[in-house]
Every structure is written in C-alpha cells, then in structure tokens.
Amino acid sequence: MANYREIAWQGLWKNNPGLVQLLGLCPLLAVTATITNALGLGLATMLVLIGSNILVSLVRDYVPKEIRIPVFVMIIAALVTTVQLLINAYAYGLYLSLGIFLPLIVTNCIIIGRAEAFASRNNAFSAAFDGLMMGLGFTLVLTVLGATREILGQGTLFDGADQLLGPWAKSLTIHLWQVDTPFLLAMLPPGAFIVMGLLIALKNVIDKKVKERQPQVAAEPSVTRARITKVG
C-alpha cells in the first residue's frame, strides 16, 4: 500500500509530468484554450498511457532489449490510432478541435518515458496504476490551464462541452461575465506560456512552505577524534 501511495504522490504532485518533468508541453500549451479541449486531450492521453503501460509490462520478458523502443512505439501507435478513431466516431467536434495533436500523442515523451522507466520493470497492475496517476496528473494540469485561459480569454467555463459529452452538455456552459472582445493574449500560445509559468511558480511556493513547516531534524554532533602516536 505504501508503494502505491508513493506512485500516486509522484504522479499527481512530486513528479507531475506537466509541472515538474515539463513533458508534453507542445499539446499542453497548444490546445488548452478551453477546458473542454484540455479535458479531451488529457483523457485521451491517460487512456493511451494506461493501455501502453499494461501492454509493455505484459511483453517485457519477451522483447529483446535491442528492439524494445521500436516495440514500445508500435504499441503506443496502435493505442493512439484506436483512441483517435473512437473520438472521431463519438466526439467528432472534439476530434476537429484537437486536430493534429491527437496523432501526436504517439510522440509524447510522457508515454514512452513511463513505458521505459516504469512499465518495463514492474508488473501489469503497478504499471496500470502508474499510468493512471501520471495521466491524471497531466490531465489536472491541462484542466487548470484550460480553465484559467478560458476564463481570462472569453469569460466562460465549459464552452463547447457538447463536443466532448454530447448535445445535452450545452447547458453546462457557464458565462461568468460578458466579453465583447476576447482577450487574445490568454487565448494564444504566449498566454499559455505565462499561465504555465505561474502554475509552476505556485507549485514551487507551496513546496517551499510545506518544507519550512516540517520539523527540522537536529544534526548529529560531530565528534573530534584525537590521534595518539606512541613514541619510543
């Protein structure tokens, strides 16, 4: 249980892919103009991450070390294609919004990194849990970034939720205030860089405050040893 708690802590906070490892920044910054796009990409990445971790863990003893990376990439590519086809079939509006960044999940460093660093060294259940926690941590960062940019840019939340959840979700859109002209800095990639930097700074401040509140372990007193040399 302690091991799984550590895996969860690593994925959600301490070693978060977006805030600490800074992996997958290209889609993270490009498609998070709204919380709907952020959730869609985050969930797609999470599904691929969990599936690839499980499959890599199951075949790890049968794949020669010399070709493990190409095999891992083939597994990831197959899963990404499956997820892409499912989104195309059941959430076509979201499929159009995410565009090229759906197939580019294949090259996401988070997925190949977890396959190599964790899934290829652990059993399937642990690998699946690691994929879930890393994917959830990445999705949370995407969601916060998307929500912040959407609020600042157009004064709404869950705009276009029907693209992800269906026609019934149109009622989920929340209009916080009326915006005559969208705030382009928040909607464009430069605004994403600024918000992302603020999120990383906030995490560092929280970590520093938590560390300061932890009880300090007193250092052990050093012992001076005298060397006596017998003469004569």
From TrEMBL:
<keyword id="KW-1133">Transmembrane helix</keyword>
<dbReference type="Pfam" id="PF02508">
    <property type="entry name" value="Rnf-Nqr"/>
</dbReference>
<dbReference type="GO" id="GO:0005886">
    <property type="term" value="C:plasma membrane"/>
</dbReference>
<keyword id="KW-0249">Electron transport</keyword>
<dbReference type="InterPro" id="IPR003667">
    <property type="entry name" value="NqrDE/RnfAE"/>
</dbReference>
<feature type="transmembrane region" description="Helical">
    <location>
        <begin position="124"/>
        <end position="147"/>
    </location>
</feature>
<keyword id="KW-1278">Translocase</keyword>
<keyword id="KW-0812">Transmembrane</keyword>
<feature type="transmembrane region" description="Helical">
    <location>
        <begin position="67"/>
        <end position="87"/>
    </location>
</feature>
<keyword id="KW-1003">Cell membrane</keyword>
<feature type="transmembrane region" description="Helical">
    <location>
        <begin position="93"/>
        <end position="112"/>
    </location>
</feature>
<keyword id="KW-0997">Cell inner membrane</keyword>
<dbReference type="GO" id="GO:0022900">
    <property type="term" value="P:electron transport chain"/>
</dbReference>
<comment type="function">
    <text>Part of a membrane-bound complex that couples electron transfer with translocation of ions across the membrane.</text>
</comment>
<dbReference type="InterPro" id="IPR010968">
    <property type="entry name" value="RnfE"/>
</dbReference>
<comment type="similarity">
    <text>Belongs to the NqrDE/RnfAE family.</text>
</comment>
<protein>
    <recommendedName>
        <fullName>Ion-translocating oxidoreductase complex subunit E</fullName>
        <ecNumber>7.-.-.-</ecNumber>
    </recommendedName>
</protein>
<comment type="subunit">
    <text>The complex is composed of six subunits: RnfA, RnfB, RnfC, RnfD, RnfE and RnfG.</text>
</comment>
<feature type="transmembrane region" description="Helical">
    <location>
        <begin position="22"/>
        <end position="55"/>
    </location>
</feature>
<keyword id="KW-0813">Transport</keyword>
<keyword id="KW-0472">Membrane</keyword>
<feature type="transmembrane region" description="Helical">
    <location>
        <begin position="183"/>
        <end position="202"/>
    </location>
</feature>
<dbReference type="GO" id="GO:0012505">
    <property type="term" value="C:endomembrane system"/>
</dbReference>
